[in-house]
Design brief:
Yope Regulator, Chain: A; six-stranded antiparallel β-sheet; 38% helix; elongated
């Protein structure tokens, strides 16, 4: 059985726990910050013998606007490259695309009870974060960065 207290202790030990959230579909739901300024969710779905780690990212209007004038081929190649790249991280993901423009991406991984160790737990969070970075870097590489006069305090500012 997956222990809420064990997961909570691991998150507190590594200073990742930000809040506990009520979720009627979960035995427990933690909001975590890993690494600094990046929010993820750790959820134990009701009736399941696993935990799910998820990171949802909304592409900012500034970056969506960089995608709009790109050619259809560039946009379709970007989505294909994004799929190939995310698949190589061995994570699950969902891309929300509207008119060939990436609007949002959700990256998840699950760890089943028989494989749940602190090591596997932290490695899964790292894999999810690196998958998110892949998305950010591929947007930059394909469509360019927003104007330098836009105030950016960290790499997550390009996303809402």
């Amino acid at each position: 059985m997956i222990s809420e207290e064990t997961i909570k202790k691991w998150l507190l030990d590594e200073d990742m726990l930000r809040e506990m959230r009520y979720d009627e579909n979960a035995d427990f739901h933690f909001v975590v910050e890993f690494p600094k300024d990046n929010i993820m969710d750790v959820v134990k779905p009701k009736g399941k013998d696993c935990i799910v780690i998820a990171c949802a990212t909304q592409v900012s209007p500034e970056h969506s606007n960089l995608m709009i004038p790109a050619s259809t081929k560039t946009k379709k190649d970007f989505i294909l490259d994004l799929n190939f790249g995310l698949n190589s991280f061995l994570v699950d993901y969902e891309l929300q695309i509207n008119n060939d423009i990436l609007q949002q991406f959700i990256i998840t991984d699950q760890i089943f009870e028989d494989g749940l160790t602190k090591d596997n737990f932290v490695k899964a969070m790292k894999r999810i974060f690196k998958s998110k970075l892949h998305c950010i870097w591929l947007i930059d590489k394909t469509f360019g960065r927003i104007s330098p006069n836009v105030n950016q305090t960290n790499e997550n500012d390009m996303f809402i």
